[in-house]
Model the fold of this input.
Amino acid sequence: MNVSQNNLDAVNAKLLVKIEPADYNEKVEKAVKDFRKKANMPGFRPGTVPVGLVKKMYGKSFLAEEVNKLISDALYDYIKEKNLNILGEPIPTENFPVPEFEDGANFEFSFDIAIAPELAVSLSSKNKVKYYNITVAQDLIDKQTAAYRGRFGKYVQTEKVEEKDVVKGELQELNADGSEEVDGVKVENALLSPGYIKNADEQKKVLGMTKDSSFVFNPSKAFNGNEAELASLLQISKDAAKTFTSDCKFTIKEITRYAEAEMNQEFFDACFGKDVVKSEAEFTEKIKAGLAEQFVEDSDIKFIIDMRDLVLGQLKDVQFPDTFLKRWLKANNEKMTAEQIEEEYPKMIEDLKWQLVKDKMAKDADVKIEKADIEEVAKKAAKAQFAQYGMIGVPDDILDGYVQDMLKNKDGAKNAAERAAEHKIVELLKTKVSLANTDITFDEFNKFFEKK
Done:
């Protein structure tokens, strides 16, 4: 078996693979014998089918299969041995004769390959790149504090109705003269929240009412005739709700309010773990530090965008194997039309340039992704997931167990590894240029990402 390379230009080449009978004979014979042992053919017991008959019936299929395996191995080994930095994968040369798979024949196959161009990027302290440090303003601390207090609050009984309260009581349909309709709608434990009442005049009727008091309102007007809300409140069908226009009397039994958590040790422990925070001042500092840590991720994203623009600005004239890459795209994305490929190709090349530059920098700097790096990324992701459910001070042993489960998943492990690599690249890029640290408010920073 022989592989030879013919360079067409700096980024395009052909690989010619030559295969002789000595390369495949033994493999084909073994495949035939293995098949014969388990072949189940009419007139023969298993394992007694003549070899010649198996070859006659299936020989070409076994030959084609083994030759294709040899081609794949030959291409892989050659690319690895010659240390070729190729783009995509080898694809068969167009219009190259396809051989007939005949036993004892010599075969030749031609493949096109794309060689990654040399990307000469010059970065030094002369390149000044702004690094935006997002300031943790008091309003952000206040919002985060309110979110924590809301998350760890609890429902309490109160005496006077406010907009966000839930009122429980007896609802009774009334006649036009204000008397109770004997056969009318009656709900023993009706639930009503003033905040969901659409009509302002109807809402005023319940706001400020006290426990054990009554008020008269019109449910249809209150909910602007919304059949679903009326049916739910009155516990009737949607069809019945369509024609319900009566006033109702509501007698309040309970007023339930969700009260924010008080700023005390129990609250601090619930947020961050026992005795981690012992005062309101320490709580505020903890909130501030957490926001600052989150903002570093945002600052790094903006930095990497600006570095990408700087690098790509130096690579405008780099030549890529466009014809090959478009063929490769089509071969691997059959649903893509030629028009879609032409439209998306420029962006793909920009992404490819950036990825190649990052890969080269990481290789030159001998950047290695250790297990600890991946676990640290996974741990941060786990903390963020727990925080979404209000679980802030999760113990390390629980986090570690969660991380290990996350990394057992192939996709989870791959994602964590990619993020760990990205973090390493960000830190590497920071050493390649002069950072112009610039303070910026959160609102100002977000304007960078607003659609124009």
